[in-house]
Amino acid sequence: MSDSSAAIKRALVVDDNAINRHLAVAFFKRLGIVAEEAEDGPAALARLAEKPFDIVLLDISMPGMSGEEVLATLRADVRFNGLRVIAYTAHALPEEKQSLVEAGFDDLLIKPINLKAVESVLGDCLRS
User: Fold this and answer.
1) Which of 26, 25, 32, 31 is nearest to 8 (CA)?
2) What domains appear along the chain, each with residue ranges and CATH number?
3) What pTM does this model have?
């Protein structure tokens, strides 16, 4: 039997709304993922520079630094190659989803989220 700690994933939930962060963290924990929170883009970048994460759930509309700006910073830094970044937004129009994928997000979760949606978006990550 392999070391089960190797399968534990780490996620960072980034949202300026505390309730949204707490809900997402609760869903991640139910799926066996260790989750931490950041309240804005600069806090997220600082946390990501401190320790490794496998997944970032990134709110798009945040004051100061948008999710797209955080993503651009991450994608430009080789330290974050392979980091799975999921857009976390209330904007659900098909053209908006396409725009987010083209910007470099790996997937999209539409608010309000539920456990099934989180599980679906994390499918491959949960199996690896």
Assistant:
1) 32
2) 4-127 (3.40.50.2300)
3) 0.91
